[in-house]
Amino acid sequence: MRTVGIIAEYNPFHNGHAYHIAEARRLTGADYCIVVMSGDFVQRGTPAIMDKFLRARSALLNGADLVLELPVYYAAGSAEYFASGAIALLDKLGVTDALFFGSESGDIRVLSSLADALLDESPRFQQMLKQQMKAGATYPQARNLALSVTVPHLTDKLFALQSPNNILGIEYLKALKRRHSKIQPYTIGRSGAEYHSASLESIYSSALAIRESIKERGDIQYIRDQVPPSAYALMEEAFGHTFPILPDDLSALLPYKLLLEREKGYTGYLDIDGSFSDRLCNMLPSFTDYSSFCELLKTRNTTYTRVARNLLHILLDIRSDDMAQFSRDDHIYYARILGINREAEPLFGAIKERAAIPLLSKLSDAADRIGQGSGRRLLNADIRSGNIYSLLVQHKFGGQIQNEYQKPIAVV
Hints:
Blueprint: E1 3-8, H1 15-28, E2 32-38, H2 52-60, E3 66-70, H3 72-75, H4 79-92, E4 98-103, H5 108-120, H6 123-134, H7 139-150, H8 164-179, E5 184-189, H9 207-217, H10 229-238, H11 254-261, H12 274-283, H13 290-297, H14 304-316, H15 320-328, E6 335-340, H16 345-354, E7 359-360, H17 366-370, H18 374-397, E8 410-411
Parallel strand pairs: 1-2, 1-4, 2-3, 4-5, 6-7, 6-8
Antiparallel strand pairs: 3-6
């Protein structure tokens, strides 16, 4: 039995994702496909446009066999945290033979060589990095210059560090190397529109373009050709009831939490330093909505996405000291199932036999399976974020709030 792992957000699931799953199975010779997927909040610092169970069902209908939730501490974290959590989860299952990811480069050797260089971080590299940043360079600029001097044979490969999927792929490779994992990495060149493309193109548009189309047009008919028919049917059923949830839907909840925390500052939250905390305190009276507030807070060295993640960390109570403990404990304490394929019984049997962590299908069983320590704190953060997402849905569309314990996993 051969199993391939994919790390994804599926925000939302589209044709490119279906192609990626099919190629992952074909090129790795996998019998089964496991997807580690962000839950209800994603790395851009926003709520997912569709809830995690609908996105999991879309993946299952298009080639995935098991969808597991990437805990929110990692799903809403930087590329390094995102990759560390996801790779740890795949590795601890004990059945993952291959990792398959998309990249702009499409060359695993280039990405692996850059991963090696960034893992090394020699004293000379660190010294040059600090010097360049002190002189006013941004982190990417300083990093590239330090690499070009300390590992000059990679100078012609540094272009790969300018593309988001390459950067994330390098973090996957770094995480695999740190763990001395036996999982074999594969990459495929990105097809269709670029990651940041905001316009619909042919049948392989970016997730960003699809989200922007839904936001601007207030309709999903224009994206029909961009998503598999089964995924579109789920969208049609959910549209206007639980979907779409957009970034500015955070505008009602966020200022309340920011006001509660203003007097003591925000430095206890993940990735927030004193400078950002002070800026946030000073700018809070200017809050009008989420998107414009992110624009207001961004600076030359703090991108819009970094601002958005910081604000999400505050809203979801994602704290630095907890992340430090989770990292010391090797990141992952459980694998929570979001969706399963009934025909993948041999895969589940193998996981139950080989996994180093419990496989959770019911939250009600969690206390007995993972105890009340750090693992429970990590799971509580997932439950809390899911309930907050349900509040966003209820505030926008009405209806009854469904808590995490009431939500059934997707089964196909």
